[in-house]
Amino acid sequence: MGRLVFGTNKHFDKTAANVLQAIRDGGYTHIVSCGRHANYNEEGSGEGIRQALQGSAVSSREDLFLQTCFVADTNPDYDKTWSPATTSDTATSDLTISQQVRLSVESSLKNLNTTYLDVVLYHNLKSKIDPYEKIREAWSELEKFVDQGTVRYLGLTNVHDLDFLQRFHSDVRVKPTILQNRFHANRQFNVPLRSFIREHNLTWQAFWILTGNGGTVGGPVAKDIAKKYNVTPQQVIFAFVLSLGATPMIGSATAQHLRQDMDVTSELLSQEDRIRFAEALGKPDLVEM
After folding, report:
1. What φ, ψ does residue 249 adopt, rounded to 5°?
2. What is the Cβ-side half-sphere exposure of residue 224, based on CA atoms within 13 angstroms?
3. Dihedral sign from CA coordinates of 209, 249, 129, 96
4. Model confidence, pTM
């Protein structure tokens, strides 16, 4: 898994070019797409990866970490124009959740030009978790792909309910490896889940970092800290997120910003400046004393 990951949400017809640029110019090896999601162009991600491999921007498929997700057809994020990229099933309506999972995984393999997926996440809409038994049924099907070696790891998106996580982790055979959650005040910046994440060695993949915290990033505290370290305010928040033990998702479409973000380390900010930034976010307990 990458220290930083490149996300392709809403890159649409520029996805291929942006994925290629992220790998070639930014040094990103962990690429995030999402099958059957209306805001993602998974085929575009696959084309960008193909071009990167063909142009020797990366040595081999094994040097990349490819992440996708499964979106149930009842999820509002589901791409209603989606059709399977395989011929194993022709119908896309009235399918069981297990059938949907199989189609989605097979389609992602084809779209991303790969024989295996490094991780598949079960996608929930924002803070609204799908019904428990539906997720369990989908997860059981995904576990079969892990058993076959077609998928290496599994994960979840948009789960901020500690009780759910505890129950789910106890119930499933293949434990989640990645938890992809928003970095935002209305999700308490994941603080209630922090101990659980550490205890079970989950990777917290943080997204919506810039979009959800624009006021703080553009505010006087971030600018003052940025000036002190001769970096950008955007680099300040990414360094802060790294210092929390999270993995930031980067979505920049410019080579300069991709390189700037990749240069950031978790050790950039002093403890004093981490506390100042946490206070600017309105969540002082983000920094543990």
Report:
1. -95, 125
2. 10
3. positive
4. 0.94
Distance CA 166, CA 30 (A): 27
Rg of the chain in Å (alpha carbons) = 19
* Residue 144 buriedness (CB in 10 A; 0-12 / 13-18 / 19+): middle
Q: How many angstroms separate the most distant Cα atoms in the chain?
A: 59
Residues 6 or more apart whose Cβ sits within 8 Å of residue 261: 4, 26, 234, 235, 238, 248, 250, 252
207, 211, 215, 216 alpha-carbon torsion, rounded to 10°:
20
Cβ neighbourhood burial of 149 (10 Å; 0-12, 13-18, 19+)? exposed
* Structure tokens belonging to residue 78: 């589901």
CA distance 206 to 178: 10
- At residue 9's C-alpha, the angle toward residues 8 and 11, to 5°, is 70
Per residue in 103-125, pLDDT tens? 999 999 999 999 999 999 999 99
Residue for token digits 């390189």? 259
Going along the chain, which residue ranges are E strands? 5-7, 30-32, 65-70, 117-122, 151-157, 178-182, 203-207, 247-250
Q: How many residues does the chain have?
A: 289
pLDDT in tens, 203-252: 999 999 999 999 999 999 999 999 999 999 999 999 999 999 999 999 99
Q: Which of 10, 8, 9 is nearest to 21 (CA)?
A: 8
Using CB atoms within 10 A of its CB, is residue 184 exposed (0-12), middle (13-18) or buried (19+)? Answer: middle
Contact 226, 280 (CB under 8 A): no
* Rounded distance between C-alpha atoms, residue 1 and residue 63, angstroms: 10
